[in-house]
Amino acid sequence: MTDAVYVYGIVSADTAPPRDHAGIGDPPAKVQTLKSGDVAALVSPIDARTPLGRKEDLLAHQRLLDAVAADGPVLPLTFGAALTDPDAVVGELLEPNRDDFVRALDELRGRAEYMVTARYVQEAVLGEVLDEHPELAELRDSIAGRPEELTHQDRIRLGEGINAAVSAKREHDTRALADVVRPHVVQAVVREPAHELDAARIAVLAEVDAEEKLTGSLAQVARDWHGRAEIRVRGPLAPYDFVTTVR
Amino acid sequence: MTTAVQPQGGGGGMVDRPSSSSLADVLDTILDKGLVIDAYVRVSLVGIELLTIDARVVVASVDTYLRFAEAVGRLNIEQDKESLPELVGDLNEGGAQHKSKGAVKGALDAAGEKARDALGGDDRERHRERRSRKED
């Protein structure tokens, strides 16, 4: 039963739907494009009565958009967008907003998002914190010999102190990493930490041709931080952090 | 894609280039970033139920604090382990000089256990750590 059209994103009309990436649904639906002038929507049919959000659906949505972004500009839609039928996609989404979409796609040509993340190596960063904060090391030692049920408050106090120290490090390291990538990117956005050991999470919009310069600059930091933090770069990705809806 | 996958965890100071996104990567990207369709479309919007997805970790919480406290407690044990070779050296001098590697390893293990015993309940702590560790 297919009674709605799921929309992944907006592309230029000459973009072919990626053949090796299926869409959401079980079994995964075939992805097509619906065109209107210079723009097109990446879509696939879905059953509107089946709730969305299975792991496979989430991965399919992002992997499809990222695959498209590797070859050309795409405006990603937030997960879960569906319209009643193909005519609605063309008549209500593409036609009224065509100029807007064309302008945004032009701006993104040759560019893609890269997600730069750094994660602390726990033992190393905690060692740094204890070295820099003798009072936390003392508190830790005072807890060590005592039974767990008597140290609950102290352990919270200790953890709170460590968290504050790690947060300060994160702020410092995020700024340092942003300074390193900035010369090689068009824009950079700092994302909130998603894990207590995150050292930095920076989404960057970069020229795809400058990718090697970007990763080269990060490799230098990776060497400097070897043993204390691990650096990861994902991309090219669809520009999730750099397209916004202006109402 | 121009992605080159580097060996995971190998070598010094490499930048990791995973070839595709994991679920954790996806969750904080496509659920609250990108264009929101109802800013463009009203009439023909289909409201599809979204399964409850909330994988966001609260970074500063009592849970975090207790995990950190536990982790620095374990750090203490790690540091004790680092000083163990000295202890093993002493044992060797005390007459066991030319024993096989196995014996030295045995001494190491025994001493390691002792260090854990002294600090109490390491197995239980380790179990809890595994349970509370977040998916990456």
From TrEMBL, chain A:
Protein family per UniProt: Belongs to the gas vesicle GvpF/GvpL family.
Endpoints of the signal sequence: none
Presence of the UniProt keyword Ribosomal protein in the record: no
Protein name (record): Gas vesicle protein
Main location: other
Pfam families per UniProt: GvpL_GvpF
Protein's GO biological process: gas vesicle organization
GO cellular component: gas vesicle
InterPro entries, per database record: GvpL/GvpF
Keywords assigned by UniProt, alphabetized: Gas vesicle
Record field: transmembrane: none
Location(s) in or outside the cell: Gas vesicle
